[in-house]
Amino acid sequence: MKNRRIGDRTVSSIGLGGMPMSIEGRPDEARSIATIHAALDAGVTLIDTADAYHLDQTDVGHNETLIAKALASYGGDTSDVLVATKGGHLRPGGGSWTVDGSPEHLRQACDDSLKRLGVDAIGLYQFHRPDPTVPYEDSIGAIRDLLDAGKIRMAGISNANPDRIRLSQQILGGRLVSVQNQFALNFRSSEPELELCTELGIAFLPWSPLGGITSAASLGSKNAAFKEVADARGVSAQQVCLAWMLALSPIVIPIPGSSRPETIRDSAAAADLELTADELARLNAA
Question: Hey, what domains does the chain have and what are their CATH numbers?
């Protein structure tokens, strides 16, 4: 698998998004662990999670705990795996999302994530979503303090606009390494953020790159050009979509969610799918 960079770390150019393994409709634990192991077998070295990937308040941090268990039970070397988690988002009632960007909450959330992941320092910690009741600079200031204290090795932000990317880079003293925004064929509003990240050399991590849990399976039937290229190559339309996304910029690292071994294997194969200039032109036109 081909690699890309997040800060000073080399990671696979396709990551694994952990949310489908922990929210509503999640599979049993054995299948989830098999999915994470399949990702590792395929060369995936970036796993994205969050403390909010759970069902309700009795289940907080489910996905972080699951990932820690899967890494511990994997038979191979996991020293090169970067686990990226997030804080600042909450699901108090299951299915409903709230935010808490207060420095106090972020400090506690980070401590709790450290325990669940079983590490001395979190590889990449990201502010999950802006809290309209808390000044953004206060939230990012808390992330800076966690970085300075050595509780996190790298800092990122999620669901951010260009102004907040620039502000975060300033507050963090040039140490912002990643931006995680929604970006897909049917959701292109983060193109300004992608362009800015390319300019600044910051990793851009599209979440729901295949359009989300309900849309990923029908991607080919709704996008004729992608299906045509996929059929000609003998691969899935989902693979073509991820390969197209990788071709947009060298800082793009998609993190498709998965809850089955076969889907993450298919996604991981996109890292080695080289689209021709003609194919990319057709896909861009579509």
Answer: 3-218+251-273 (3.20.20.100)
**Phi-psi sector, 234: left (phi>0), alpha (psi -120 to 50), beta:** left
Catalytic residues: 53
Dump the DSSP string for the chain: --EEEETTEEEESS-EE-GGGTSTT---HHHHHHHHHHHHHTT--EEE--TT-SSSTTSTTHHHHHHHHHHHH-SS--TTPEEEEEESEE-TTSS--EE---HHHHHHHHHHHHHHHT-SSBSEEEE-S--TTS-HHHHHHHHHHHHHTTSBS-EEEES--HHHHHHHHHHTTS-EEEEE-B-BTTB-TTHHHHHHHHHHT-EE--BSTTS-TTTGGGHHHH-HHHHHHHHHHTS-HHHHHHHHHHHH-TTB--B-B-SSHHHHHHHHGGGG----HHHHHHHHH-
Q: Report the amino acid identity of residue 219.
A: L
Helix crossing, 277-285 with 237-248: angle to 10°? 100
Neighbouring-strand partners of residue 86: 126
CA distances from 285 to 156, 183, 273 (A): 32, 17, 19
CA distance linking residue 21 with residue 192, whole number of Å: 30
pTM (2 d.p.): 0.97
Rounded CA gap, 113 and 97, in Å? 19
Q: What is the pLDDT of residue 220?
A: 83
Cα separation, 42 vs 165, in Å, equals: 32
Q: Summarize pLDDT for 3-62 with one digit per residue, the tens.
A: 999 999 999 999 999 999 999 899 999 999 999 999 999 999 999 999 999 998 899 999
What's the CA gap between 182 and 170, in Å, rounded? 23
**Two tokens at 69?**
């268990």
